[in-house]
């Protein structure tokens, strides 16, 4: 469901209900850019530096689209109902205070990417929902309060009536009285009169207050230079009184995020570090300077944050994924083995922007869980999806054009197993993604759709981890049970795989005399190993029932309370960082040492990568990556080199470390004396550091920089506080005085004579400039523009 500016307030009750009743919420954003040129990637950053860089980007770019999806468990359906919402958001400044006005950057590649994915920029600007942060909302209320006070004070000083404005006032009063006499409340309800500028519009307001004692209501239209008059009613009077009360604007998309925060529901994203930074800066509060402060502030908004990109690093998940990009994850979770586990998902009623249709009840047996019941989705169209404009890696969104078989995601509707289905050929594996939009295109990179598939990926991953772990435990338990041997007459088992026999011992049971092969059936195990004790009929029925069991109760609690899954909660995947994971709930660990990485400093500009390979050939270099013209990283291979002219056999070997510190004349002398590859004596200045030495230097430098920056902020805050205590007196501002000259050339006043004070000593006959007036002398504006 897409919600625009025009219907935002009407949809708020629906949003409130969906958010308050759901089990968890997934989210996604689209932005006008990702990173500034100053934040370009060179080397992995520390988490504090990465936070600082991303913070700068979050302050420069805009969130252009916000998507959320509420997942609510339905006992009646035995499934999660998905309610996706898509919000285009634009910082409009329609109000007089211009509270929503923003200055922002755009990244050309990001705009091209959005355009290729059918982003409507006209809809974004015309129908985007405005938003304010909490600080901006407070400033809005302050400005509105000050404005009301200024208007109340302005009404205390009436514009004097003189020859310059008497004709306009007389004609206006006559028109208003004629309208009142010849009209009723049912006919000619409004009167429009011309008012060429703010001076005459204020005169009209003054006339309504003084001549008609507030029996009329007046509104101005600066664009059309008119005033509209209406008879005052109780309804209008109440509306105007309410408008004077300073309240936050109702049209504020941040209200949705406030609802999510108040509901205390788990928030799920995919690779959502940048998304959370943008949501914090654009909608909630200014990003703090320190990473730890941001973590604490974020934990107050959302107690549980789950990043599915980090969850995809789970060993049971990682082995089935070639790539953890969201579009590829969406494809993966709709195929084996993820499609056969996890609770089913259905679209809630009236949420048809991303249409999905259930398929016939089927069963697709899996090699490790015979009899498992599964479910499925099918596309809502018969034609292949268009993919000519899709980004790389997303074009393969539909099946073959000639294929008539439905594309199945095995996780939607419970199937009914029959004996005939068991004897027929195995069902085909699920095909490509099943979710389609109403225009026959998967809406990848529309925030609402991406939020939906993010939540779907979480349910598939969590369900697979729990089911796979349970399957492994069941197999181990079953294998241990089958290995029971006949022991003492009371039924206790004996230890060991073999029983030592004595000449008089006749109790040993030989497996080949006990076990007879039987055909495998649905109610019997596939095989009985040598020496195993056969299960009873009750045990067989319990095992079969356990295998056929499907999730019929709300699994949210199991997903959130599972200790193994909790290890992946409140942790964010961070790109371009020493640590790939950020812990939101606690301190981040120190990165592991990298014994195969060395930093080369003071490299002469004449030396290239090929020269460095020759210079350090004895240490088995793998690659060199340049940070700048004089700094490079040396990566030593982890495997022993192969024979000359042959590739390495990838055999681990004992690391031979290059000399640390300054390379020195002694090392480079054999090279430049032999005139090898242009190496000269300047190469002796190359300095070599281990990764740990470089890391400690960087941490010390960044710590010092943060301390200096903190001291500067504290000093600035102290100065601001001192300034507020000893604030200067406001300069005297005289009451408003009407302009001396005619405000506009098309004014009904023909001429005006400057009024000079009696005690004026102005010998040049120039009009006196009155403090606080908005006077503009004739011709002054034109000369200034020239």
TrEMBL record:
Q: State the organism of origin.
A: Linnemannia gamsii
Region listing for Disordered, in residue ranges:
373-439, 472-540, 705-786
Q: Name one Pfam family in it.
A: CAF1
Spell out the InterPro entries in the cross-references. CAF1_poly(A)_ribonucleases, Nucleotide-bd_a/b_plait_sf, R3H_dom, R3H_dom_sf, RNase_CAF1, RNaseH-like_sf, RNaseH_sf
Query: Per the record, where are the segments of Low complexity compositional bias?
Result: 410-434, 742-765
Biased region (Polar residues) positions are: 386-400
In this chain, composition skew of type Basic and acidic residues spans 507-521, 777-786
The similarity comment for this entry is: Belongs to the CAF1 family.
Q: Which residues form the R3H domain?
A: 166-235
Taxonomic lineage from the root: Eukaryota, Fungi, Fungi incertae sedis, Mucoromycota, Mortierellomycotina
Annotated Acidic residues bias = 522-538
What name does UniProt use for this protein?
Answer: Poly(A)-specific ribonuclease PARN
